[in-house]
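Dear Dr. H.,

I hope your travels went smoothly. While you were away I took the liberty of generating a structure for the chain from your last submission, since the lab meeting agenda had it listed for discussion. I wanted you to have the full record in hand beforehand rather than looking at slides cold. The sequence, exactly as received, is reproduced here:
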Amino acid sequence: MTITVTDFEKDSQGRTYTDVLSNPVFRAALDEALTFMQQPLVLQRMFDAELHHGRPALAGAVKELERQPAFLRAVQGRTREETPIRRLKMCFGVCCRLVMEAQTWRKTASDGSLAGVGDWFTRARHYAPPSP
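The corresponding predicted structure, in token form, is as follows:
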């Protein structure tokens, strides 16, 4: 199953980000992020981040996500703490949740650090693997 921005818009949490979704540059960044996160090798890195490194799943993808052309266009000339950028980063977290849940992983109640992994993201949600 491929997850799209349309699925993001239908999600109960995703639909609360109309300000981000209405910005064409941010929407393109989300679309690119969803496509990127669903690649098999990226998914494996996200799983490995949780299973073997004790890091949030997003840690397995964040470095490359921050290098995606649409993300670079979205953050160009901005700082990490500007409200629109904070909201965009939260949307990336929702994208991660949608992708992980599609793989039958469950979100946990805890967040973990992304310090030292990327430049724009600092924390992300942890996920638990599917039950055997």
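Two observations you may find useful: The chain has seven helices and two strands. The helical segments are 5-10, 18-21, 24-37, 40-53, 62-65, 69-75, 83-102.

With kind regards,
E. W.
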